[in-house]
Amino acid sequence: MKSYDVAIIGSGPGGYVAAIRCAQLGMKTAIIEKYATLGGTCLNVGCIPSKSLLDSSHHYEDAVKHFEAHGIEIPGEIKVNLEKMIGRKQAVVDQTTTGIDFLMTKNKIDVYHGLGAFKDSTHITISGDSKEEIEAKYSIIATGSKPTSLPFATVDKERIITSTEALKLKEIPKHLIIIGGGVIGLELGQVYKRLGSEVTVVEYMDRILPTMDAGLSKELNKVFRKQKFNINVSHKVTKVERNGAEVTVKAENKKGEIVEFKGDYCLVSVGRSPFTAGLNAESAGVKLTERGQVEVNEHLQTSTSNIYAIGDVVKGAMLAHKAEEEGVFVAETIAGQKPHIDYNLIPGVVYTWPEVASVGKTEEQLKEQGIAYKSGQFPMRALGRSRASMDLDGFVKILADQSTDEVLGVHMIGARCADLISEAVVAMEFRASAEDISRMSHAHPTFTEAIKEAALAATEDRALHI
């Protein structure tokens, strides 16, 4: 039996990053993955493939709608080759997962393929092509999450699908019905909307992106309606039926009326649930919460002191970069260091176009907590860079403490906001004031100028370009 300092169950962003950091710190490390490829949901059927399709569909939409305005003329009809588009997506995934294989080899991490299950607190059985057992002084649970199902919607993976199937369809849906107006549903909805599908979103809450700042939800809703999305909020789905190639979704609106939506595909996108099936956690004395999450303390330590858990399987936002931070945190904790994570400063991003990004407190949270604040907002359309690229939708909003001017939250929607949000994270990590940001030179013309202008607006209501 092989013995290790640390064994990690799950090779998603949290798991493989934890493995690398453990190895860097001199620990003999093993990682266990039940699937044939490393990288977990994010690299195989999540972040990476969805962004690949978003980029491809964005190029297509630009060619159809915007090239002419730029003086680019393409003779003949512009067509979508979905098979080739899906093939490019898979090539990106393959290249990325192969890169993880390289990193494991480079860092001398032993990789086991099979289902990892605890025999006890220091022994893990691995059921793959053959069954084997390893011993580990410490273990890290990084088993991730799976799409949440609805009791009345049987996912057949053909017409009633999850995000996994939506990433490899053989045809462009005529009418895609999406249950859930969150990140995953909106991103995949925009992919197929660009390619020619009619898209209907059915959301239980009173707005899309219900966990983000209400201003962002309102702006994206306005943009999506302009793009001819059919958005239905405050609708409680009660039934999903398939009859051949037709899917019917029934929902109750806020008036209590039952309404029907008919399409050829239905994407069930109502969030994700922690995945612990087959882990045999109880044999190691690891407790789970009522929601199926692994119970951890502030050090991400489970009820069994030598076992930790990270990522989607524990409390908090289900984000790849959050899992990565936790992976590093646990590795350094095991090594006797004193790392920290500020969960308030982990950004959230929606990769639609315009992109949506947020960090810190929302206006709703500040009001609820009774914190006096001031707000500065600047529209993207007032930027020279936005006019040059024809990306006019959106804004940047900065929320700062009324008395100290410390930045408490930054919320933005517009071109390249997925990248712009990092400026806000850096500023808030160093507890910058709105005035600090407003006095920093920002290159012109850039999208980041909107951050400076929003900071000026929050400081003394003195934005320069509106």
Description of the molecule:
The structure is a single chain. With 466 residues, the protein is an alpha/beta fold. The model has no long low-confidence stretch (mean pLDDT 97). Helices cover 32% and strands 26% of the residues. The N and C termini lie far apart (69 Å). The protein has three domains: 215 residues, FAD/NAD(P)-binding domain (3-Layer(bba) Sandwich), CATH 3.50.50; 111 residues, FAD/NAD(P)-binding domain (3-Layer(bba) Sandwich), CATH 3.50.50.60; 116 residues, Enolase-like, domain 1 (2-Layer Sandwich), CATH 3.30.390. α3 runs parallel beside α6. Strands 1, 2, 3, 4, 5, 6 and 17 form a seven-stranded mixed β-sheet that branches. A five-stranded parallel β-sheet has the order 8-15-9-10-11. The protein is globular and about 65 Å long.
List the helices and strands and how they pair.
Layout: E1 2-9, H1 13-24, E2 29-33, H2 40-45, H3 47-66, H4 82-106, E3 110-113, E4 115-120, E5 123-127, E6 131-141, E7 145-147, E8 160-161, H5 163-166, E9 175-179, H6 183-194, E10 198-202, H7 214-226, E11 230-232, E12 236-243, E13 246-252, E14 258-263, E15 265-268, E16 272-274, E17 307-309, H8 320-334, E18 348-350, E19 355-360, H9 363-368, E20 373-379, H10 384-389, E21 395-401, E22 407-414, H11 417-429, H12 434-438, H13 449-460
Parallel strand pairs: 1-2, 1-6, 2-3, 6-17, 8-15, 9-10, 9-15, 10-11
Antiparallel strand pairs: 4-5, 5-6, 7-16, 12-13, 13-14, 18-19, 19-22, 20-21, 21-22
